[in-house]
Amino acid sequence: MKKHILIGLFVLLGISANAQLQNLDFENWTQDVDANRPDNWVIGQGFGQFGIYRDSLPQAGTFAMTLSRWYYYTFDDAVQTAAAPIKPVELKGFYRYTENDVQYNGEDVVQDTAHVYVFAKKWNSVSLQNDTIGRGHILLTKADFWTAFTCPVYYISNDMPDSVTIRLAPTERYLDRPMGMCPNTSSGYCSYFTVDNLSLSETVGLNDTKASQFSIFPNPANDRAYIATASQSKAIQYTIIDATGRTIKSQTSYSIGEAIDISRLQNGIYFLIVNTNGTTTAQKIIKQ
């Protein structure tokens, strides 16, 4: 039964792209087979719906949404895709994150992290697929009380996106980390990620200013590319994202001018997201 429900929900995800993002304040809920489900959101990762709650202690309004993980088997995430009436440059909202102790493979107990993603996509009539032209991602740590967050969106194109996707995940396991347990709970649930009052905004000039923080050469590149930064940094953390929004490579370099090996990448356009001295910026890199 849950498999049929999950398939149906992903069908709804495609349908929702015809309308603007809705229910970002999580006020509207529908009773599903297993639980209350927030309207306009696709819920469930892995085996189905195991940890979705209608929270009655909102940041404002009547309800908020809580997601969680269950043992190491599965977790619930929340996804919504819709048409992009603007070119969003940041997603704002409020969150709580509690009981986020996890234990991986018998190692020491560590603090889990919640994740917020934004994908801005545009249809490519040549490749007949949606290219990710803008991407935002932040991780959130423990917060017992309502806390504001901002997730910037960085672009590799000046084009207007056709659609925007928000994805909310309550656990680091979403990034393919080893399986972990919820060690301090008898119910098997942990990493409670409560979200409320999301909003997308368009601010002129935000990404243009940040884009000047580094340059890539050569670009296009064949086997190797180099990062030149405007500031001296002891460490440069970079992530390469493909046109679908998938993370291809993530690494930290402690040597300024160290080459980035892109020899194994297929030819095409990628994001290069760079973090130096606490500032995150993004540019387009072409592999040829």
Descriptive overview:
- With 288 residues, the protein is mainly beta.
- It contains 2 helices and 23 strands.
- The strands form 5 sheets. Strands 3, 4, 5, 6, 7, 10, 11, 12, 13, 14 and 16 form an 11-stranded antiparallel sheet that branches. A 4-stranded antiparallel sheet has the order 20-19-22-23. Strands 9-8-15 form a 3-stranded antiparallel sheet, with no helix packed on it.
- The longest helix has 14 residues, at 2-15.
- The protein is globular, with a radius of gyration of 20 Å.
- The relative contact order is 0.16.
What percent of the residues sit in helical stretches (DSSP H or I)? under 10%
N-C termini distance: 46 Å
Number of strands: 23
Which whole number gives the mean pLDDT?
Answer: 78
- Which series of helices and strands comes N to C? HEEEEEEEEEEEEEEEEHEEEEEEE
Q: Give the overall shape.
A: globular
Number of helices: 2
Uncertain runs with pLDDT below 50, 5 residues or more? 1-18, 204-212
What is the CA-based Rg, rounded? 20 Å
What does the main sheet amount to? 11 strands, antiparallel
Write the layout of secondary structure elements.
Blueprint: H1 2-15, E1 29-31, E2 36-38, E3 42-45, E4 52-55, E5 64-70, E6 74-83, E7 90-98, E8 101-104, E9 109-111, E10 114-124, E11 129-140, E12 143-152, E13 154-155, E14 163-169, E15 180-181, E16 189-201, H2 206-211, E17 214-217, E18 224-229, E19 236-241, E20 247-253, E21 260-261, E22 268-276, E23 279-287
Antiparallel strand pairs: 1-2, 3-6, 4-5, 5-6, 5-16, 6-14, 7-12, 7-16, 8-9, 8-15, 10-11, 10-14, 11-13, 17-18, 18-21, 19-20, 19-22, 22-23
